[in-house]
Structure formats: structure tokens, C-alpha cells
Design brief:
This protein is of the alpha+beta class and 417 residues long. The longest helix has 21 residues, at 264-284. A five-stranded mixed β-sheet has the order 5-6-1-7-8. The protein has a four-stranded antiparallel β-sheet with strand order 9-12-10-11, covered by helices on one side. The chain has a three-stranded mixed β-sheet with strand order 3-2-4. It contains 15 helices and twelve strands. The model has no long low-confidence stretch (mean pLDDT 91). Strand 5 (101-105) and strand 6 (108-114) form a beta hairpin. Helix 11 packs antiparallel against helix 12 and helix 13 runs antiparallel to helix 14 (317-331).
Amino acid sequence: MSSNDVTYALCDVNSFYVACERLFRPDLKDKPVIVLSNNDGCAIAMCDFSKSLGIKIGTPYFQIKSLLKRHNIEWFSSNYGLYGDISQRFNWVLQQFTDKVAPYSVDESFLMFQGFSGDLTEHCQNLKQTVNQWLSLPICVGLGPTKTLAKVANYYAKKHKQSTNGVVDLRSQKNRQWALEHLAVENIWGVGRRLSQKLKLQRIDTAWDLHNCDYKTLQRMFSVNMERTILELRGQPCFEFHQHPQAKQSILNSRSFGNPITNKADLKEALAYHATRCCEKLRKQSSLANSIQLFLRTRHSDHPQATLSLTEPSDDTSLFLQAIEQGLNRIYRPDQVYKKAGVMLLGIEPSKGYQADIFNQTRQRPELMESLDTINAKFGKDAIKFGSLGFDKRWAMRANARSPHYTSRWNDIIRLK
């Protein structure tokens, strides 16, 4: 293999949410841990011991409550603020080993190596040890000539942690063929449950079966992504490597309420909160939006919604909050009980180069929004906020066992005595 060949690596943190909870609680190192979803609804992350008890991802909390108590399993409400901050630190450590890092999700990132002349497997072992030493995060690394094969390699690294020491290299044809022959087709990256059922009807049961298929025929039967997946399994890179996340075409924020609500003022506060979060994401990706959709969900599963357009694309939170009030007046019914609310921004376009309408009287305040974002980034979320967000948050989610925000709130920083 030439030193100029490109090699992809996938670094994946094992049980990321659990690892984050253990990071500042060393007493949990050898104890079983489970993390629950929003409103403490169901299990979304767990350690190996909890999995060995037969607990599945998505199992409702009330079904496992007695099991947690019997086996003395520690459980936590999800703490996404903490997980997001640890994820950023994780990617910073990865950048010490290569300048090409593409975060894929909160707990996994792709790395690209090109022109690397040393032993790449040893390099990734050092990376694994460094992440563990600096952040106490256990990771596994998969290496391959394409992103799909790096995913396959990571699958085996996690499945055989002891024998592989957490690093698997599929750059050689011999190793690659063995790995694909023993990999069920539903475990291939991008092949979901429904698609795997259709493939099995074509007698394609393993990744090696798919590797040997005629990609043009399957492209006509399914999609161009199927063709790309087959070529990636053959070692030909087809999926692009994006170091910076691409701008979203729509931005959504929604939550279920901790308790059902009927009060219009509470609904307005919840929608204002979601609109504020959406506008922050909009400005972060340097975009403007020209319409907003707000929706509610009632106890009887009705979905009232309203879509409003602005006179001109904007990223000004105050304009969207005004639209929220108009939209809520249209869809609110005092005799209904509501259990969820959400906001979606639509018609998104880049702010750079946008030519404003000189006859439009809408007041845009980019300097104010920039100051708002700067202050909140420095002093914490909602250090300064619009009054329509309120203070009581009677609609907020249940989080009865959420850990402190150890790294992002001054009051939660651990104090040594």
C-alpha cells in the first residue's frame, strides 16, 4: 500500500453517555449504570452488565424499575449539556493525531490519514490510550480504505475488544474478505432493517454477498446510495469527507412536557424556548429562514400546527417570537390538554451574500443577535434572554436524576476541600 493512499478511521466511544456520567464519579467505575431519555421515559444507554441482564435500548423505565433496584444499578436522567461539552473535548483530542477530523455524531468521528508513513495501527493504539488518559473515555477504532469499511472494522473492534485491544485494521484484502463474510447485511452502515429484509429476499444475507453483487442492477432496484455502499465495500471511496457539518435545510426543536398543560401562557413559553434554540442554530450556521412552523400534540394525539412566513428572510429571534404568538392564537384550544410542542424553521438560505429588500420596513438587528450569542456563550445558556421565554418553566421535562453540568456551569464545578 502506498503511503499516499487514503485511510479512514472511525473512533467510537463505548457507551458514551455512561462514560460521561462515570467521568466525574469514579465511584461508579465498577458499578452498572443506565441513562434514561427525555422525561426519564426509557433506557437509551447502558453498560455491558445492564445489557447482559437483557435490558434493551428503548425499554420503558417503569418496566425495568424493579430490575434496577434488585441489581443496584445506578440510573441517570440524560444530561445533553454535559455530553455535548465532552464530545467537543473528545474531538479536540482526535485533532492532536490528524488535522482531518469529521464529527459524525456526539460519540463518534471519522478521521482521514493521507501520506502517513508510520505504523497506523500503532498510531491509533496511542490515540486510544491518550483519549483514555486525558478524558477517561473508552474508545474503539476501525481502519479501512473507505468510510463504510472503517465502520465495519469498528464493529469488530467493539465486538472483540479483548482480542483486538480495541483497534481493527481492514486495509488488507484477506482481513476484509473474512470480515465481510461474517457480517450480516443488516449490520452494514446505511442498510436499515427494512432494506435488509428486501436484500434478503434477493438472497443477499452477508456483506460479502452484497460486495459481489452487480451494483448497477441494485442501483436501479434501490437507489444510488446502494451503488455507493457496494463500491465502498470493494474499497472505492464514494462518501464524501466533510470536516465541517453542512448547513441544514430545516431546523427543528421540540420536547414533550414533564406534565400535561392546558394554559396558553405555558404553551407560549415552551414555543418561545424552542424558537430561540432554533434561531441560535440558524445563526451558528450563518443562515436565514423565511418561515416558521409551530406544532402541538394533544393528549388525544391531535397535531394542530400553523406555518407563518416572514416578509423577509431573517435570523432575528424577536421576529420569530412575534410569529409564534400569531400562530398560537390560530391553533390553541382551551378545552385541550397538551403534552408536546415544537418549532421548525423552513426556507433556509445562506446569509452571506443575501441582498435585502431596500423597501422592506422590517427591522433587522444583527449586532444585537451577535451580542446576545456572545454573552450567552460566555456566561451560559439564557444568561440573557427574551422575556417571552418566562422563568417558571412549568412545561419543562422531568429529569429527576440528572447529574450536574460539571464542565459548563460555574455552580456545578467540583470543589476540592
